[in-house]
Amino acid sequence: MSLTPPIEHHDAAPLSGRVVVITGGAQGIGRGIAQAVLGAGGRVAIGDLDRDAGRACLDEWQVGDRAWFAPLDVSREASVRGFMRKALARFSRLDGLVNNAGPASPGVPDLATLPLAEWRRFIDGHLTGAFLCCKHALPALRARGGAIVNIASSRVHQSEAHTEPYAAAKGGLSALTHALAISEGPRVRVNAISPGWIATDAWRKPVARRAPKLSRRDHAQHPSGRVGEPGDIGALAVHLLSPAAGFITGQNIVVDGGMGRKMQYA
Question: Which of 10, 83, 108, 168 is the most buried (most CB within 10 A)?
Protein backbone atom coordinates (compact mmCIF):
# COMPACT_ATOMS: atom_id res chain seq x y z
CA MET A 1 0.00 0.00 0.00
CA SER A 2 1.34 3.40 -1.00
CA LEU A 3 1.99 5.97 1.74
CA THR A 4 1.73 8.82 -0.75
CA PRO A 5 -1.29 11.03 0.01
CA PRO A 6 -3.98 11.00 -2.67
CA ILE A 7 -4.85 14.03 -4.79
CA GLU A 8 -7.46 15.99 -2.87
CA HIS A 9 -10.53 17.52 -4.47
CA HIS A 10 -10.74 21.32 -4.27
CA ASP A 11 -14.22 22.54 -3.50
CA ALA A 12 -15.59 24.87 -6.18
CA ALA A 13 -17.96 26.38 -3.60
CA PRO A 14 -15.84 26.44 -0.42
CA LEU A 15 -18.33 28.55 1.55
CA SER A 16 -21.45 26.62 0.60
CA GLY A 17 -24.11 27.15 3.25
CA ARG A 18 -21.86 29.32 5.42
CA VAL A 19 -22.96 32.72 6.69
CA VAL A 20 -20.54 35.65 6.70
CA VAL A 21 -21.09 39.07 8.26
CA ILE A 22 -19.36 41.87 6.32
CA THR A 23 -19.22 45.36 7.80
CA GLY A 24 -19.03 48.24 5.36
CA GLY A 25 -20.19 45.61 2.90
CA ALA A 26 -22.28 47.73 0.54
CA GLN A 27 -19.51 49.48 -1.40
CA GLY A 28 -15.85 49.22 -2.34
CA ILE A 29 -13.72 46.43 -0.92
CA GLY A 30 -16.58 45.33 1.33
CA ARG A 31 -18.86 44.79 -1.62
CA GLY A 32 -16.09 42.96 -3.45
CA ILE A 33 -15.75 40.58 -0.52
CA ALA A 34 -19.52 40.10 -0.28
CA GLN A 35 -19.77 39.20 -3.95
CA ALA A 36 -16.84 36.79 -3.64
CA VAL A 37 -18.53 35.06 -0.70
CA LEU A 38 -21.76 34.73 -2.70
CA GLY A 39 -19.78 33.38 -5.64
CA ALA A 40 -18.23 30.79 -3.32
CA GLY A 41 -21.67 29.52 -2.33
CA GLY A 42 -22.00 31.44 0.92
CA ARG A 43 -24.64 33.72 2.39
CA VAL A 44 -23.95 37.29 3.48
CA ALA A 45 -25.20 39.71 6.10
CA ILE A 46 -23.94 43.13 5.11
CA GLY A 47 -24.00 46.11 7.43
CA ASP A 48 -23.35 49.66 6.26
CA LEU A 49 -24.13 53.25 7.16
CA ASP A 50 -25.33 53.91 3.60
CA ARG A 51 -28.85 52.54 3.27
CA ASP A 52 -29.11 53.33 -0.44
CA ALA A 53 -25.93 51.39 -1.16
CA GLY A 54 -27.15 48.43 0.88
CA ARG A 55 -30.49 48.29 -0.89
CA ALA A 56 -28.75 48.60 -4.26
CA CYS A 57 -26.67 45.52 -3.48
CA LEU A 58 -29.76 43.40 -2.85
CA ASP A 59 -31.50 44.77 -5.95
CA GLU A 60 -28.51 44.10 -8.20
CA TRP A 61 -27.47 40.74 -6.80
CA GLN A 62 -30.89 39.11 -7.00
CA VAL A 63 -29.85 36.16 -4.81
CA GLY A 64 -32.97 36.01 -2.66
CA ASP A 65 -32.51 35.04 0.98
CA ARG A 66 -28.78 34.42 0.52
CA ALA A 67 -28.14 38.13 1.15
CA TRP A 68 -29.47 40.45 3.83
CA PHE A 69 -28.74 44.09 4.60
CA ALA A 70 -29.31 46.23 7.68
CA PRO A 71 -27.95 49.66 8.67
CA LEU A 72 -24.92 49.41 10.93
CA ASP A 73 -22.77 51.92 12.79
CA VAL A 74 -19.81 49.93 14.08
CA SER A 75 -18.74 52.74 16.42
CA ARG A 76 -21.93 52.32 18.48
CA GLU A 77 -22.23 49.20 20.61
CA ALA A 78 -26.03 49.24 20.58
CA SER A 79 -26.02 49.23 16.79
CA VAL A 80 -23.51 46.36 16.62
CA ARG A 81 -25.36 44.33 19.25
CA GLY A 82 -28.67 44.75 17.45
CA PHE A 83 -27.19 43.94 14.05
CA MET A 84 -25.58 40.69 15.22
CA ARG A 85 -28.77 39.60 16.96
CA LYS A 86 -30.83 40.22 13.82
CA ALA A 87 -28.29 38.45 11.60
CA LEU A 88 -28.27 35.41 13.86
CA ALA A 89 -32.06 35.38 14.06
CA ARG A 90 -32.30 35.51 10.26
CA PHE A 91 -29.66 32.90 9.40
CA SER A 92 -29.54 30.82 12.62
CA ARG A 93 -25.73 30.70 12.42
CA LEU A 94 -22.64 32.81 11.86
CA ASP A 95 -19.55 31.22 10.33
CA GLY A 96 -17.46 34.26 9.45
CA LEU A 97 -16.94 37.93 10.22
CA VAL A 98 -15.17 40.45 7.99
CA ASN A 99 -14.33 43.72 9.75
CA ASN A 100 -14.09 46.14 6.84
CA ALA A 101 -15.99 49.25 7.98
CA GLY A 102 -14.29 52.55 8.73
CA PRO A 103 -13.44 55.96 7.22
CA ALA A 104 -11.87 55.38 3.81
CA SER A 105 -9.98 58.61 3.11
CA PRO A 106 -6.78 58.59 5.19
CA GLY A 107 -5.72 62.23 4.82
CA VAL A 108 -6.07 64.62 7.80
CA PRO A 109 -4.74 68.08 8.77
CA ASP A 110 -1.37 68.57 10.44
CA LEU A 111 -1.25 66.59 13.69
CA ALA A 112 -0.49 69.76 15.67
CA THR A 113 -3.94 71.11 14.74
CA LEU A 114 -5.88 67.85 14.45
CA PRO A 115 -9.10 67.89 16.51
CA LEU A 116 -9.46 65.04 18.98
CA ALA A 117 -12.83 64.21 17.46
CA GLU A 118 -11.18 63.57 14.08
CA TRP A 119 -8.62 61.25 15.68
CA ARG A 120 -11.40 59.37 17.45
CA ARG A 121 -13.42 59.09 14.22
CA PHE A 122 -10.70 56.89 12.71
CA ILE A 123 -9.93 54.91 15.85
CA ASP A 124 -13.60 54.27 16.59
CA GLY A 125 -14.53 53.57 12.98
CA HIS A 126 -11.78 51.02 12.34
CA LEU A 127 -10.39 49.66 15.60
CA THR A 128 -13.16 50.08 18.16
CA GLY A 129 -15.67 48.97 15.54
CA ALA A 130 -13.75 45.75 14.92
CA PHE A 131 -13.54 45.12 18.66
CA LEU A 132 -17.29 45.57 19.08
CA CYS A 133 -18.12 43.34 16.12
CA CYS A 134 -15.78 40.62 17.37
CA LYS A 135 -17.23 40.91 20.88
CA HIS A 136 -20.80 40.39 19.74
CA ALA A 137 -20.10 37.81 17.01
CA LEU A 138 -17.69 35.58 18.93
CA PRO A 139 -20.25 33.42 20.78
CA ALA A 140 -21.84 32.41 17.47
CA LEU A 141 -18.47 32.02 15.73
CA ARG A 142 -17.14 29.80 18.53
CA ALA A 143 -20.16 27.53 18.16
CA ARG A 144 -19.41 27.04 14.44
CA GLY A 145 -15.60 26.96 14.54
CA GLY A 146 -15.68 30.14 12.48
CA ALA A 147 -13.18 32.65 11.16
CA ILE A 148 -12.57 36.39 11.36
CA VAL A 149 -10.90 38.49 8.66
CA ASN A 150 -9.87 42.03 9.54
CA ILE A 151 -9.23 44.45 6.68
CA ALA A 152 -6.10 46.35 7.66
CA SER A 153 -3.92 48.24 5.15
CA SER A 154 -0.49 48.30 3.58
CA ARG A 155 -0.19 51.54 5.58
CA VAL A 156 0.51 49.31 8.56
CA HIS A 157 4.01 49.05 7.05
CA GLN A 158 4.47 52.35 5.17
CA SER A 159 2.93 55.82 5.22
CA GLU A 160 2.19 59.05 3.43
CA ALA A 161 2.36 62.34 5.30
CA HIS A 162 -0.64 63.38 7.42
CA THR A 163 -2.29 59.97 7.74
CA GLU A 164 -1.54 59.32 11.41
CA PRO A 165 -5.06 58.42 12.67
CA TYR A 166 -5.69 55.99 9.80
CA ALA A 167 -2.27 54.36 10.16
CA ALA A 168 -2.66 54.06 13.93
CA ALA A 169 -6.11 52.51 13.61
CA LYS A 170 -4.99 50.00 10.99
CA GLY A 171 -1.84 49.21 12.96
CA GLY A 172 -3.98 48.51 16.00
CA LEU A 173 -6.21 46.28 13.89
CA SER A 174 -3.18 44.27 12.80
CA ALA A 175 -2.11 43.80 16.43
CA LEU A 176 -5.67 42.92 17.46
CA THR A 177 -5.60 40.21 14.81
CA HIS A 178 -2.69 38.24 16.21
CA ALA A 179 -3.71 38.82 19.84
CA LEU A 180 -7.23 37.53 19.21
CA ALA A 181 -5.92 34.60 17.17
CA ILE A 182 -3.96 33.42 20.21
CA SER A 183 -6.88 33.92 22.58
CA GLU A 184 -9.44 32.20 20.35
CA GLY A 185 -7.39 29.37 18.87
CA PRO A 186 -8.24 26.71 17.98
CA ARG A 187 -11.95 27.53 18.10
CA VAL A 188 -11.85 30.63 15.88
CA ARG A 189 -9.16 31.55 13.36
CA VAL A 190 -8.32 35.27 13.00
CA ASN A 191 -6.38 36.82 10.11
CA ALA A 192 -5.95 40.21 8.48
CA ILE A 193 -5.64 41.34 4.89
CA SER A 194 -3.70 44.53 4.16
CA PRO A 195 -4.79 45.88 0.77
CA GLY A 196 -2.60 48.26 -1.18
CA TRP A 197 -3.97 50.46 -3.97
CA ILE A 198 -7.45 49.15 -4.76
CA ALA A 199 -9.59 51.01 -7.32
CA THR A 200 -13.13 51.06 -5.97
CA ASP A 201 -14.77 53.61 -8.30
CA ALA A 202 -16.84 50.98 -10.11
CA TRP A 203 -17.91 49.34 -6.85
CA ARG A 204 -19.87 52.23 -5.37
CA LYS A 205 -23.63 52.65 -5.22
CA PRO A 206 -25.17 53.25 -8.67
CA VAL A 207 -25.42 57.05 -8.47
CA ALA A 208 -21.73 57.38 -7.53
CA ARG A 209 -20.36 54.64 -9.78
CA ARG A 210 -17.84 55.41 -12.51
CA ALA A 211 -14.97 53.86 -14.39
CA PRO A 212 -11.59 54.28 -12.64
CA LYS A 213 -9.30 56.94 -14.09
CA LEU A 214 -5.94 55.20 -14.04
CA SER A 215 -2.82 55.98 -16.04
CA ARG A 216 -0.16 53.65 -17.41
CA ARG A 217 2.12 55.00 -14.69
CA ASP A 218 -0.41 54.05 -12.02
CA HIS A 219 -0.41 50.46 -13.23
CA ALA A 220 3.35 50.36 -13.88
CA GLN A 221 4.12 51.15 -10.22
CA HIS A 222 2.96 47.63 -9.41
CA PRO A 223 5.14 44.59 -10.25
CA SER A 224 1.87 42.78 -10.99
CA GLY A 225 1.31 45.27 -13.82
CA ARG A 226 -1.95 46.77 -12.59
CA VAL A 227 -3.78 48.52 -9.79
CA GLY A 228 -5.84 46.22 -7.58
CA GLU A 229 -9.58 45.57 -7.65
CA PRO A 230 -12.01 44.64 -4.85
CA GLY A 231 -12.22 41.13 -6.26
CA ASP A 232 -8.52 40.63 -5.50
CA ILE A 233 -9.27 41.11 -1.82
CA GLY A 234 -12.47 39.08 -2.03
CA ALA A 235 -10.63 36.06 -3.44
CA LEU A 236 -8.22 35.94 -0.49
CA ALA A 237 -11.00 36.61 2.03
CA VAL A 238 -12.93 33.60 0.71
CA HIS A 239 -9.89 31.39 1.21
CA LEU A 240 -9.23 32.66 4.74
CA LEU A 241 -12.88 32.15 5.67
CA SER A 242 -12.97 28.62 4.29
CA PRO A 243 -11.86 25.30 5.82
CA ALA A 244 -9.03 25.19 3.26
CA ALA A 245 -7.24 27.84 5.37
CA GLY A 246 -7.48 25.76 8.54
CA PHE A 247 -3.73 26.07 9.22
CA ILE A 248 -3.62 29.86 8.80
CA THR A 249 -4.25 32.11 11.79
CA GLY A 250 -2.75 35.24 13.33
CA GLN A 251 -1.45 36.46 9.98
CA ASN A 252 -1.57 39.83 8.22
CA ILE A 253 -1.29 39.21 4.48
CA VAL A 254 -0.36 42.15 2.24
CA VAL A 255 -2.17 42.27 -1.12
CA ASP A 256 -0.64 45.19 -3.01
CA GLY A 257 0.50 43.85 -6.37
CA GLY A 258 4.06 43.79 -5.05
CA MET A 259 4.21 47.59 -4.72
CA GLY A 260 5.50 47.48 -1.14
CA ARG A 261 8.46 45.34 -2.21
CA LYS A 262 9.53 47.66 -5.00
CA MET A 263 12.24 50.22 -4.30
CA GLN A 264 11.00 53.70 -5.14
CA TYR A 265 13.61 56.29 -6.15
CA ALA A 266 12.42 59.73 -7.25
Answer: 83
